[in-house]
From TrEMBL:
It comes from the Bacteria. Gene3D superfamilies: YbaK/aminoacyl-tRNA synthetase-associated domain (3.90.960.10). This is Cys-tRNA(Pro) deacylase, prolyl-tRNA editing enzyme YbaK/EbsC. Residues 50-168 form the YbaK/aminoacyl-tRNA synthetase-associated domain. GO terms for molecular function: aminoacyl-tRNA deacylase activity.
Amino acid sequence: MSTSRWSVLGTLSAEPALTRPDLLGAPVAAALKALDPADAAQIGVAEIDPALADTAAFCEAYSSPLEGSANCVVVSGKRSGEIRYAACLVLATTRADVNGFVRTYLDVRKASFAPMEDACEHTGMEYGGITPIGLPEGWPILVDAAVVASPEVVIGSGIRGSKLALPGSVVARLPGVEVVEGLAR
């Protein structure tokens, strides 16, 4: 797949992500450099207006299909005073089953979206740009099987000023990723 033309990016064109570290959050740039070069070469980055980073606004402004976007959310829960985190990547047309699947996975009584400040502090990424690439080591990264089955998806880049496009199959090979059925509803 050429990194310049992605149907999932609508009217945008992308450049190879590794050639534009200025369009990536610092942990994302570091993680991309550490990927298998063949996988990293399949990831494109496109600059966007940071005010349009939220999925609905992005899709409308750039004619990107909503079913081609995947949202990464940070979920947390407590067990014996310890806060446990996980990241969940689901298609934008679905929602992560936070209080069912994720709660059970984390083995906590109640799971919820992590507060914005915590999510940003722990990931080193901007809110609205959090992505499964470059998350803290040891965090479970739960990816719905529908994301992996997608020929191409749009995800965050660690900042609000760009988006990444990549094949769903590459998402499955990212460090820490666990592909699961039933994560999304």
